[in-house]
Amino acid sequence: MTDDPGLHGAETDRTYARAGFGAKVPRGDRPALVVVDLTRGFTEPDFPTGADLSAEVAAAGELVRAAHASGVPVIYTAIGYAPSEVDSIAWLRKAPGMRSLLDGSEEVALDPRLERRDSDQLIVKKGASAFHGTGLAALLSALHVDTVVVCGATTSGCVRATAVDSVQSGFDTLVVAEACGDRAQGPHDAALFDLQAKYADVVSLAEGRSVLAPERPARIAFAGNERLLTPSALADLEATSVWVRSGDLRLHLLDYGPDHATPLVILPGITSPAVTMDFVARELTDLVRPLVLDLRGRGLSDDGPPDGYDLASYAADVEAVLDELGLQRPILLGHSMGARIAAQVAVSGRPALGGLILVDPPMSGPDRPYPTTLATFLSQLEQARRGTDADEVATHWPTWPRREQELRARWLASCSPAAIAGTHAGFESEQFLPLWTKLTLPTTLLFGTQSPVVTETDVAELGRSNPRHRLIGVAGAGHMVFWDQPSAALRALRALLPAQ
């Protein structure tokens, strides 16, 4: 029987096997995608440092789309130097052709065939490894990543250095062969062989996609120590589950009644399923008919498509709810994300509304990051998905009432990572102030006087830009107004609602 010659010959394979190399890398359940240096200077042959990496860029694009669809973090890297640096960096004395990779140049720009969302990170580095001299290891640790999927250019240089440092930083590492490219085939093959033998698993594009966006059961059915959330989890509430369709999506609401009262449709925040607003809704039934919506991707509602977490999509869901339930001149109450959605619905003018109450809407936008990072949100979600309790929730929200800590511990895991990532991207690409200036409907904006989301400066600007509306501060409250100061916030809210 003839030995399989292997990639580098049977003798090489036997030598490496005898040395104990080539064991299989574990696949974790918290991946991140690191796209190494797929910038024009490396992916386009017209640049001296480049080659035609069209096929590799296309493969990397498939990985990026898979990661975006499942809410997996995407980190891009680029090499870029200030003119003052090029004479002092030792690497550039060995590779002087890379001195043209100057900050702001065409060579340093991300290949335009790749999608970069606002939620994606970009790390500019000075060396081969994406870890050397950067905060990448700290970022991945903050995201509770256990598996790093690497692709990019060049295979024998920055990809190999990044994969080696990934392992040395404690992360199981996969390198996607079809999504890695080099200037020549020999160095590419040798680098993949060495990575497979000693540092990473070199995997196919199909496996890379599967790791980033695995086939999973329905979002609310968790395995192992993660909780199974079903409608029975609502059994203790004094509310009725109602289901509405918005296009192909099934949306869930909690209806507190009574039917004859003025409808108050409550739209929660980015990581707040409907049940977490129960402590607000049940205190209002003597004045209005509260209906709390599980916004798409949360609670018991369906997920939206990967690109379906913008304000227009959310607003369409609210309009479908109002139409299907036949709610006449409802008041919309939105907190945080929900406040932005309520304003979007009001500005559209399609449903006839009876009023608008906006609670601490994010004032962030393209030039102003949202105060809570996406990494923080995803870290809290991962904590919930692995199994958490009220004590652990209290480390983030120590002043909340105990019951609300318990509800968050149970229900945060029902939020889709893609919904959180898509919404957070909207916080930093869509703006609230243009909606506010267009509002003609009677509107009150409640804000926490200690909120980092609606600051004192923001309150002044809101007053100037649309003085017809009321601005009411809840003393001592941060962004989570009702949770931070329940009694004061409820008193302020009740004063704004009509009596039955």
UniProtKB/TrEMBL annotation:
Annotated keywords: Hydrolase
Ranges for domain Isochorismatase-like: 32-206
Residues covered by the AB hydrolase-1 domain: 264-491
InterPro entries: AB_hydrolase_1, AB_hydrolase_fold, Isochorismatase-like_dom, Isochorismatase-like_hydrls, Isochorismatase-like_sf
Highest taxon of source: Bacteria
Pfam families: Abhydrolase_6 (PF12697), Isochorismatase (PF00857)
MF annotations from Gene Ontology: hydrolase activity
Protein name: N-formylmaleamate deformylase
Organism of provenance: Amycolatopsis sulphurea
Lineage, opening ranks: Bacteria, Bacillati, Actinomycetota, Actinomycetes, Pseudonocardiales
